[in-house]
Amino acid sequence: MDALLESAVPLTTTYRPSRPLNLRQTVGTLLRGATEPTMRFTPNGFWRVMRTPLGPVTLQAESDERGDVHARAWGPGAEWVLDALPELLGAGDSWNELDLTSVPMLAEVRRHHPGMWLTCTSLVFESLVPSILEQKVTTIEARRSWHYLLRKFGDAPPGPAPEGMRVQPSARGWQLIPSWEWHRAGVGPDRSRAIVGAAALAAGLDRLASGGARGDQTQTQSKTQAQTQAQTQMQSQTQTQTQSQAQTPAAVQSATLGVGAGYSVRAVRDVTGVLEKLQSVHGVGRWTAAETSQRSHGHPDAVSVGDYHLAAHVGWVLVGKPVDDDGMLELLEPWRGHRQRVVRLILASGIPKPRFGPRATIQDHRFH
């Protein structure tokens, strides 16, 4: 009965960012296709289902005309995800030290997109699995595999999630998928073994979000820093929070967290050694580590080296011609420490990469 009530009655919070926030541009990197099983966009927000350290959760977030984000969460992980909401919406991402004066075009892109930030889910294994699935295949193939596996082995989300949404399997669930189901999903032995191997390390991988590669060693220090920041912000927002609670019925307040907070006591972002630690996992290379950390950590300097399209796109936007990975890294070098931010601006610029030749042929070996 308690579990049913926990799933039926949401916890709520209101996050009031102190700067522009575009929800779609910030969390859009978590969406893998229009029918992504773990996420849905709405006109003013999104639904997202995930497996937190405390269990599965369904999150609904909507932005109002003032820019405040109203969130509801159902399931065992509700408190965890509402505490993580500011980081999910880019609160820990600062672009203040990014100098774009040498490329006025990029500065103009930033001026037009002031609400775009790097999301941070704090869920490493969750971000790693789809990144492994996307290794060395087309986007269409990877999404087809992702959808098949989640429909077949994912869990129904708690609460009133939109139809068709599924929570990723647990680490144990990924390990129990039979070999023939990987084949039916179009996932070859290399990628399936990499996912199963990563699942055995899932708990340790998720600890990377607690303080870079040092994990628990820095968690206490980072949390203390975050709590100090939170206390400072809390003092400045006490009046707003008091007024909000005064207008909220007691029955609703009992299921409400952080109204007017706009901060989180989660560990501050630390990406020290994360890329190297991820690449120590069997089957995880430079590209996969970058794709994972961009989402799990909001890594500001992770570049997806080895991407089929990215290097040429960066080259066309910055110098008017395609370049290879080495050329891309050379072009991005002046922004070391911020290279993912610059890549995001390039992708948001609207400047397309010219297409040459036919698309890659999709090979379907599922029934061979």
UniProtKB/TrEMBL annotation:
<dbReference type="InterPro" id="IPR011257">
    <property type="entry name" value="DNA_glycosylase"/>
</dbReference>
<dbReference type="GO" id="GO:0008725">
    <property type="term" value="F:DNA-3-methyladenine glycosylase activity"/>
</dbReference>
<keyword id="KW-0234">DNA repair</keyword>
<dbReference type="GO" id="GO:0032993">
    <property type="term" value="C:protein-DNA complex"/>
</dbReference>
<dbReference type="GO" id="GO:0032131">
    <property type="term" value="F:alkylated DNA binding"/>
</dbReference>
<dbReference type="GO" id="GO:0006285">
    <property type="term" value="P:base-excision repair, AP site formation"/>
</dbReference>
<keyword id="KW-0227">DNA damage</keyword>
<dbReference type="GO" id="GO:0006307">
    <property type="term" value="P:DNA alkylation repair"/>
</dbReference>
<protein>
    <submittedName>
        <fullName>3-methyladenine DNA glycosylase</fullName>
    </submittedName>
</protein>
<dbReference type="GO" id="GO:0043916">
    <property type="term" value="F:DNA-7-methylguanine glycosylase activity"/>
</dbReference>
<dbReference type="GO" id="GO:0005737">
    <property type="term" value="C:cytoplasm"/>
</dbReference>
<dbReference type="InterPro" id="IPR051912">
    <property type="entry name" value="Alkylbase_DNA_Glycosylase/TA"/>
</dbReference>
<feature type="region of interest" description="Disordered">
    <location>
        <begin position="211"/>
        <end position="242"/>
    </location>
</feature>
